[in-house]
Specification:
disordered N terminus; 416 residues; two-stranded antiparallel sheet; alpha/beta; single chain; five-stranded mixed β-sheet; 55% helix; globular
């Protein structure tokens, strides 16, 4: 059991573990023998609490280099604390919560988790020197990450609101899909906004319907289609129950959907501007990545936003490992099984690479050949696409490292 050191004279290094929370941060400080330097304590998360933390450090040593401070990378709660500590000229390390959890399981051997133990575990991890520091991107890459995740959040909300609209439409006008297989086209949404239910459409005229689309470019909604839509509505299975309430609900959902579309468009414009004005200024990183057939700007922004500058990785293998593009494996004695793709890694980046693999099968002759070869050798299409995803990640890494555009001749060069 740990004992509290009553004298601090002669200790040169202090290992500080901070468990980050919304209202209070719990702090544990160990000396260079692995014993408590002071009794564990907590501070408030406001400026007063952070000043108290720095004062506590000063009571132990006036030399900032005597401290190694660790905290878990928990996004919203850790960012301000990390910035305050580093701005005060202390060495702070962000730790992945997965490695601290594994170290906790190893060190405590108990299913116990609380704030005081978490702070102690972080301090012990620093003292043991078995930690791996999380990467901190510069402001441009971090901004790209924030914008990318905001866009992802909006896309998820768009999917949710579309499901809500589809559910209501399946009741109030199920026959509309005979005319509009996709009810989320501009033309279909225009109809639904004005005539939400089959009851409403049944009372319309072909001229009124066709008049809705005069301002929509490229629509092919004819008067015959309008008549067909009205005929379907007049023989609809919808009985008309709660017609006004459901019409109001649909109008509300569509307004929300259009707002999400507009917000997504603005975020994409900000991402484009950020890439052009801040990330692609020193070299031709983005321009070179854009030379890969089948890899879209969305993929590039997702990879750079989630992973930062790819030059920070020692090798393409390290980059792929960071992404989580590797299968799980279990080996014991004569048993050796390989499972599905690891859950760890960067979900947004992995999804972006997978979609890039799908696009590359259609638009990249070299990657298309790799895909066909893998399928011919017995791999499933999904397995082949995952292999292609890893290949694209390797190509992107090489392009950034050597600052050269895509070279089709180098795709088939074997790894050394």
């Amino acid at each position: 059991m740990r004992t509290l050191k009553l004298t601090l004279k002669g200790y040169k290094m202090y290992y500080v573990g901070i468990d980050v929370a919304k209202e209070k941060h719990y702090v544990c400080i160990l000396d260079d023998t692995g014993e408590y330097a002071v009794k564990p304590f907590w501070i408030y998360t406001n400026v007063v609490g952070l000043r108290e933390l720095i004062k506590r450090f000063g009571d132990l040593s006036l030399d900032n280099d005597d401290f190694l401070i660790g905290l878990e990378s928990t996004g919203a709660f850790s960012e301000n604390l990390y910035e305050y500590i580093t701005d005060s000229d202390y060495k702070a390390i962000l730790l992945n919560s997965y490695q601290t959890a594994k170290f906790r399981d190893f060190s405590t051997m108990k299913k116990i988790k609380n704030d005081a133990i978490d702070a102690l575990v972080i301090a012990e991890l620093l003292f043991a020197g078995k930690y791996k520091e999380s990467h901190i991107s510069n402001d441009a890459y971090h901004s790209l990450k924030v914008l990318g995740r905001t866009k992802k959040s909006l896309m998820d909300k768009i999917k949710t609101i579309k499901r809500e609209i589809s559910t209501v439409m399946a009741t109030v006008n199920p026959e509309i899909t005979n005319v509009f297989p996709n009810i989320f086209t501009k033309t279909a949404l225009e109809v639904i906004k004005v005539y939400p239910t089959a009851t409403d459409i049944a009372q319309a005229t072909p001229k009124k319907l066709t008049r809705l689309f005069r301002h929509i470019k490229g629509n092919n909604f004819s008067e015959d289609k309008a008549k067909y839509l009205i005929d379907l509505a007049q023989t609809s299975v919808y009985a008309g129950r709660a017609c006004k309430a459901r019409a109001s609900l649909l109008s509300s959902y569509i307004r929300i959907l259009e707002l999400y579309y507009q917000e997504k468009k603005e975020i994409e414009a900000q991402i484009k501007q950020l890439i052009e004005e801040e990330i692609d200024t020193e070299d031709n990183t983005v321009e070179n990545l854009q030379s890969i057939p089948g890899v879209s700007d969305k993929t590039i922004s997702a990879i750079l936003g989630e992973c930062g500058d790819l030059r920070r990785f020692d090798s393409a293998k390290a980059f792929i490992g960071y992404l989580g593009l590797y299968p799980t494996q279990y080996q014991s004695g004569n048993s050796n099984s390989v499972g599905r793709l690891a859950k760890r890694g960067i979900p947004i980046a992995k999804h972006a690479l997978y979609m890039a693999a799908v696009g590359s099968v259609l638009h990249n002759p070299q990657l298309n050949k790799i895909f066909r070869d893998k399928v011919s050798s017995g791999k499933s299409k999904k397995e082949a696409l995952i292999i292609l995803s890893k290949k694209i990640a390797t190509i992107m890494y090489s392009i950034v490292m050597y600052n050269k555009p895509y070279d089709a001749q180098r795709v088939f060069i074997p790894k050394r």
